[in-house]
Amino acid sequence: MIRLFKVKEKQRELAENANGGVPIKKQTAGELRLNKDISELNLPSSCTMTFPNGKDNLMNFEVSIRPDEGYYLGGTFLFSFQVSPIYPHEAPKVKCKTKVYHPNIDLEGNVCLNILREDWKPVLSINTIIYGLYHLFTEPNWEDPLNHDAAAVLRDNPKMFESNVRRALSGGYVGQTFFQRCI
Predict the structure, then answer these.
(1) Closest CA to 129 of 169, 75, 82
(2) For 114, which DSSP code?
(3) Contact, 49 vs 66, CB < 8 A?
(4) Does 112 qualify as catalytic in the annotation?
(5) Are 155 and 141 in contact (CB under 8 A)?
(6) Peptide bond preceding 88: is omega within 30 degrees of 0, i.e. cis?
(7) pLDDT mean values, one per 10 residues, the chain (183 residues)
C-alpha cells in the first residue's frame, strides 16, 4: 500500500516538472461534470453564456436570455449561476440580476423553477436549467409564484399584465417599484 502512494507521488512530481513546476489543480467531480455539460450545451440563439471571472472559474458564470416571443419579447435578462462542488447532486444556485416584473421571479432575483428545487435530479444539466429559464419568459406560470401580485394580474387580467411588463421593460414604475430599462 505504501508503495502505491510513492508511485502516485512520483507521477505527480513528473507531471509538475513537465508543466514547469506549476502544480496541477485536481478537478472536483462537480467541475468535471460541469465541463461535460458546457461542452454539450445546445443553447437557443437568444441565450448566451459568459464567464465574468474567466474560463478558469467555470463554477460561476452568467447566462443572458433575450426572449424572441411572448410578453418579454425584446427584453434582456441576466442570470448568475453558482455551481456547488458536489454538482450534479445539488442544483446550481441561480439568481436573476435584472429586476423584472414576473410572477416566477421576485424583486430580489430569486427564481421559482421546480427543477431548481424539489424536482432537481442529478441527470438534469445546465442546458435543462437554461431552457427552463427561457420557458419562464415564454410561458410565465401564475400557479407557482414568487411575485404574488404579478401572478394575480396575469391570472385575472392578462392585458393589464402585458401592459405592466411593457412598462417595466421600458423603464418605469409598476405599482411602487421602479424598473430599469431592459429593452
Answers:
(1) 82
(2) G
(3) no
(4) yes
(5) no
(6) yes
(7) 55 64 73 94 94 90 97 96 96 97 96 96 97 96 95 97 94 79 70
Q: In what order do the strands lie in the sheet with 60-65?
A: 47-50, 60-65, 77-82, 93-96
Residue in 89, 141, 80, 87 with CA at minimum distance from that of residue 114: 141
- Amino acid of residue 104: N
Q: Provide the grid cell at 135.
A: 420557458
Q: Give the separation between CA 163 and CA 168, rounded to whole angstroms.
A: 9
- Catalytic entry in 47, 96, 112, 182: 112
Closest CA to 101 of 37, 40, 149, 65: 149
pTM, full prediction: 0.84
Nearest to 83 by CA among 59, 101, 117: 59
d(CA 178, CA 25): 45
The one-letter code for the residue type at 75 is: G
